[in-house]
Design a protein that fits this description.
- This protein is mainly β.
- The protein folds into two domains: about 150 residues, Cupredoxins -  blue copper proteins (Immunoglobulin-like, Sandwich); about 120 residues, Immunoglobulin-like (Sandwich), CATH 2.60.40.420.
- It is built from two helices and 21 strands.
- A six-stranded mixed β-sheet has the order 2-1-4-9-6-7, with no helix packed on it. The chain has a five-stranded mixed β-sheet with strand order 13-12-15-19-17, with helices on one face. A five-stranded mixed β-sheet has the order 14-21-20-16-18.
- It starts with 17 loop residues before the first strand and ends in a 5-residue tail after the last strand.
- The mean pLDDT is about 95.
- The structure holds copper (II) ion (CU).
- The site of copper (II) ion (CU) has 6 residues, from loops.
Length: about 300
């Protein structure tokens, strides 16, 4: 029971062709169609993050998309799977990434593939380049997100793309400048370090947390409206963790990335990255968590108390 919704920005450029929302997810059902038990696989399967056996695109198995050669489409892809990373790529095609979690990025970027973590969104322009009558299958392929996550994982057919028998059209030029995104001013920012941690207990026991503490023992982080924070996300564990914050978009402090506003970012094994958050409004209690839902459930979640600008 989930869906997607698009919030349109009036200043968003519209010259991207047809608009498509693709909600990718997976589901744990047995071969007879019944649901697998909630504790399927036991504690250690939560360590890996369970991927549902059946891959779905907009709730369907291997749907068919009809396209016309040269006629561009803006794909708004949402990864709603609980653990599965999704890689979008198609033989003979490049994709033009234009944004994600918070609408357009600063620039467009032509790439051979796009990886989307659970919880993350990615917008890109797909320009069909196959001749009329040609059919191609977009396949899911295992993304290395840590120990053993690509072993024995054959590709899965995800989406059939069929070029219809109509005269090709000439694709439009996609602008390189899309939106002006000012860098968050991090002078006097409050620094916070969050290490994403895993603890293995005895018999099939796994617990996770931030700085060694699972959510049920953790006190909330605190911030005040008006403050800017820089959080350092550290991952020395054996698995990637897509970090997700509710209520605020942030910027990843990494010169090599196209500037954009995000609320979910992958923190690969053995890396750390810094995010800048401006708490411009919206006091209250907010959550942050790993968006591999099995990891969140065994502890990798926390609360963030944002206080009013004035007062206690
Ligand atoms: Cu995780």
């Amino acid at each position: 029971m989930y869906g997607g919704f698009v919030v349109e920005d009036p200043s968003d450029l519209k010259e991207f062709g047809d608009d498509l929302v693709l909600l990718i997810s997976d589901i744990s059902i047995d071969f007879d169609g019944s649901f697998l038990p909630e504790n399927n696989g036991g504690g250690f399967s939560r360590l890996f993050g369970r991927e549902g056996r059946v891959l779905l695109v907009n709730g369907k198995v291997l749907p068919r998309l009809k396209v016309r050669k040269g006629k561009q489409q803006r794909w708004r892809v949402i990864n709603a799977a609980r653990s599965r990373y999704v890689r979008m790529s198609l033989r003979d095609h490049y994709l033009t990434r234009i944004g994600g979690d918070n609408g357009l990025a600063a620039y467009s970027e032509v790439v051979p593939r796009i990886i989307i973590t659970p919880g993350e969104r990615s917008d890109f322009v797909f320009t069909p380049s196959n001749d009329p009558g040609v059919e191609r299958i977009m396949r899911w392929g295992a993304v290395n997100r840590g120990f053993g996550t690509t072993d024995f994982r054959p590709p899965v057919n995800m989406l059939v793309i069929e070029t219809v028998d109509e005269a090709p059209v000439i694709p439009a030029e996609i602008p390189s400048q899309l939106r002006s995104i000012e860098s968050v001013d991090i002078t006097n920012a409050v620094e916070q370090s969050l290490e994403m941690t895993i603890e293995l207990g005895g018999e099939d026991e796994v617990s996770m947390g931030f700085n060694g503490i699972p959510y049920w023992s953790m006190s909330p982080l605190e911030a005040r409206v008006g403050e800017t924070h820089v959080w350092t996300l550290i991952n020395n564990s054996d698995f990637n963790h897509p970090f997700h914050l509710h209520g605020y978009f942030f910027q990843v402090l990494d010169q090599s990335r196209v500037p954009e506003w995000k609320d979910t970012v992958d923190v690969p094994v053995g890396t750390e990255l810094k995010i800048a958050i401006k708490f411009e409004d919206r006091p209250g209690m907010w959550m942050y968590h790993c968006h591999i839902l099995d990891h969140a459930e065994v502890g990798m979640m926390g609360q963030l108390l944002v206080r009013d600008a004035e007062g206690p």
